[in-house]
Structure formats: C-alpha cells, structure tokens
Amino acid sequence: MAHTAMSGSGTTESDDPLQTAVWRLRSRGCWTDAAALLAPHAAAPRVAIQRASLLIERCLYTERGWAEADDALRAAEALAQGDDERGAAACERGYLAYASTLLGARDRTDEARAALGRAAALIDPAAPGRPLLDFRRGLIAQYLADSPQSAYAAYRRAHAGATARGDTLLLSFTWRHLAGLALRDGELAEARHGFAESLRLREELGYLVGTAPALAALADAEPEPEAARLRAEARRLLRLLGGVPTWLAVQLAPRAAA
Known about the structure:
The chain has helices at residues 17-27, 31-38, 45-62, 66-79, 82-102, 109-122, 130-144, 148-165, 168-184, 188-205, 211-219, 226-240, 246-251. By secondary structure, it is mainly alpha-helical.
C-alpha cells in the first residue's frame, strides 16, 4: 500500500524509494531532512501537502519552525486543486493551528476549528483522508474544547477508519488517545490495553520518535515498579533523540529533591 501523505496518519510499506527514505527520516525525528527530499517534487500538490505536514509535525515535537511550516503550508494551499486536495490542505492548516495553541506558541483556536470544519465539508466521508480528519477533530474536542465525549466519538470514527484502511500509525494514535480517555474514567484495564497496543504498533513500524510518548503513556496506567521501568526507557529514547519531543522531556525530567 502507498504511504499516507499526512502527518499523524502514518505510513505503510511502500516500494517507492523516495517515500521509504522520507519515512525513515521522519520516524527518527529528521523532519527537515525528510522535507528536503520532497522539495524537488513539491510542484505536485500532494507532495507539497506532504512536505508541509512534515514541517508541521516538527513543530509539534520540537516547538520550533512555525514560520517555515506556515510558509510550506501556504505554498501547498496555493497549489491544491479539487476538493480532496483543498480538504487535505485545510486539515493540515487546522493541525498547525491546533499545535500552536496547544504548545502556547500562539492562540489559534478559532483558526483550528474553522480549518477542520472546512476540511470536513471538502473531504468525502469515504475518502482516504477522513480518518485523519476525524482524529484531529477529536484532538480539538479533547484539548481545546474540553469535551471528552465528543473526542471519544471522533476517535472511535478515526479508529474504525484506520482499521478499515490498514493505517497502522494512525491506529497507534487512536489506541493511545482512546486509552487516555479510559484512564481518565478510571478504566485501568482498558487503558493499559490501549496504551500497550499503541506501543506495540509503533515498535513494529520503527516509529522511534513516537515510542517514548507511548512508553510514558503506558507507564501512567501501570503500577510500580513497571511504571518506573517504562519511564526510564522513555528517558533513554529521549536522550537518543536529543530531547524530542520537547514537551515529554520536560514532563519526564527528574525532579530535584525538596
């Protein structure tokens, strides 16, 4: 199956050497290098959108590069033709605005909601990009609107769509976020199962940059000493990747004794 060209949606095995190289770089947190591989081909709207998505993902993991991501996304939006491409670009616009708001770079809540609403109007419910859109609408509901019930419904739609399409990386995200809601509701067994599935899928894919967050999430649902072991492994991966994702590095930083 072909790679899915949207950040957060993941990838499957492909015979395309360019996409294989992009995935290998992306999975190790080398988004700038991956985007550079795509640059010579970025006159094609889908490639331009994929390039923007890589730079947006870099923002979410490193909390930098916002202007470059915005520039790449504007270029992709200018090239987009047809509802599917315009919808995909709008989905990325909403995700960038969400990341900016979530990480405190700039409050772009209204932009995030408007862009994902526009994407929903453009992307057919049966289109390949719909599960990713559903997932991102769940993120908005959970983290910007504090509406866990709406988030749960959106994540379930995304989970079903990712399952049907064999989008393994998106499944790792939906498992993790559904598990997070289960943990919030005190459903420990369900949370452990979901977090473990997310971790398993990321390890199978070799999605190294996303493995530390999966380890830390599972640790939150496990008793000691297993939780401490999982967090220690997450810290080891963070050191290996130079402290990326930055928000997790802060979260797992050893606390000084009082």
